[in-house]
From TrEMBL:
The keyword Cytoplasm does not apply. This is Transcription factor/ chromatin remodeling BED-type(Zn) family. It is found in: Nucleus. Residues 5-60 form the BED-type domain. The keyword DNA-binding applies. GO terms for cellular component: nucleus. It comes from Helianthus annuus (Common sunflower). Pfam families: Dimer_Tnp_hAT, DUF659, zf-BED. One of its GO terms (molecular function) is protein dimerization activity. The lineage of its organism: Eukaryota, Viridiplantae, Streptophyta, Embryophyta, Tracheophyta. InterPro entries: DUF659, HATC_C_dom, RNaseH-like_sf, Znf_BED. Its main location: nucleus. Keywords: DNA-binding, Metal-binding, Nucleus, Zinc, Zinc-finger.
Amino acid sequence: MQVVREKDVCWEYAEKLDGNKVKCKFCLRILNGGISRLKHHLSRLPSKGVNPCSKVRDDVTDKVLAILSSKDDCKEVSLTKKRKREEPRSPVNRSLVTLETSSPVAKIFPNITQNTSSHVSDQENAERSIALFFFENKLDFSVARSPSYQLMIDSIAKCGKGFNGPTPETLKTNWLEIIKSEVSIQSKEIEKEWSTTGCTIIVETWTDNKSRALINFLISSPSSTFFHKSVDASSYFKNTKFLADLFDSVIQDFGPENIVQIILDNALNCTSIVNHILQTYGTIFVSPCASQCLNAILKEFSKIDWVNRCIMQAQMISKFIYNNSSLVEMMKKFTVGEEIIKTGITKYVSHFLSLQSILKQRSRLKHMFNSPEFTNNPCYSNKPQSMPCIGIIDDNEFWRQVEECVAVSDPFLKVMREVSGGKPAVGSVYELMTKAKESIRTYYIMDDIKCKIFFDIVDQKWQSHLHSPLHSAAAFLNPSIQYNPEIKFLGSIKEDFFRVLEKLLPTPELRRDITNQILLFTRATGMFGCNLAKEAIDAVSPGIWWEQYGDSAPTLQRVAMRILSQVCSTSPFERHWSMFQQIHSDKRNKINKETLNDIAYVHYNLKLASSKGSKSTDIDPIQLEDIDMTSQWVEETENPSPTQWLDRFGSALDGNDLNTRQFSNSIFGPNDHLFNL
């Protein structure tokens, strides 16, 4: 039997190891279960608890999918699985839809309606066709959540039978130009508010393993955030003169008089560029990305020995469950359909969101691991990971440490939610960080040593990365802070506020009467003290409050509206950097590059508009909707023994700061060609 299995054509894609293990030659991942598991791995279809291969070639995937669909391959599976495979699958009724014996999918689905039973409804046929379109074109299932998805379906339905969709050429030329024009018109409308609110230039950078450096420029104001352009700075990333000229050109595109601040992400921490901007443009501030700085704080938290050990123990539980499909079903039965882990916008956000989720499910997890359904099933209880997981689940010290991790991290996750939601939050970040620090002091009121450990981390990141005079000035001008008698830090930020005023009002003529106007505001006299103004403090944003009630201090009103209308962080949603990689590929000719630039411009701005337009309070700006099946909370790169797990508990976390899903699991893979360009 072993000899027969080694003749399988899929062995050319794997290396056979001891103990029924195989090593994928594409991604080098080690899999248990032999050649059958490898096939599901190479098929890139999530199944049997096998993670899809991220590096397999498309032609190999197609070949493996054909093998899995053939009768010969079906003979290798057990009788039970064979019956399940033969059973027709439909989201509506499993007995309704059947395919002819010439599958896969009736030899590339010629006339789908002829290949289905006569009693299949139009609804089922439509869903089948949509599903085939997704599978054939490797579309991410999350595309079905797009606002334009249902809009497209409704529009097609109105056209009736016989509607022919636009051709590739029409999409690439006519419709791309039309929609790009509509997006541009919308951006021009937003520009009208800049004279009042000012705007923020957001700079996002990304580098790959080929030393390619891409820089994206966005422009943000209270109404919206727009993508401006993407630049390949690979050859000049460390060339100060080139970067200075690049930033100068972007600033001139929007007008320096309209720009309040430029937010740089941590990857572009170039002192010379910061100095160039500050010296050349006297009224423009340079600020760090608040969400990245908060992520750096969480990263340092996770490096503390006992926190790191707690995370790795929790990951052992999640990996044990999520690498067994029947165990996942059992878990969801006990948790009433809820997942026990969450995927955040970064790896470290994922760590602490998942700890929160596991803590929430503590009693249900204990119930599951001690239930007869688990203990009497040797498929679960006899696994080598089973006993360590049960030991962790029953360990009160583990749960105490999870509670401690959640208590310390949650205030900073709340700050990240506020600054990552795309809304003007510059007036809140100082107060939010102060409250987060106070929560640590309160929690560790009886433990000065631990309190100091966390305080030192926060203070170091706050002072060296996050703190900005603009944040202090915004806090001083925020009425909810200025008029709150419990706030104790106003005196310490007044100096920063005055420095910001001198920068924004550089001449005596501009500063005329500013002292009297400051007194009107701080003493809540005139319109500042009316009942309407007091009632509106918690009802509207600080910028709008100043617009409505700051008329008695016109100069200070203009300054306050411009400062308080700014964001603190880069855009909050998932970016597909593979698109920008293709835009800047040397293999593209000029026409294709222009088309790809237009696609990126439209795509990015539609995503930004969709993110801005979503007002649901259920959407968490720091959490992704789907679990990342390649994250450290799910994926098993190898199967360490229980003792190896215990040995690793003391080691520090490593790896890229970015969540794997953000850049690796995009709709467009790194080898895909966008729209056949």
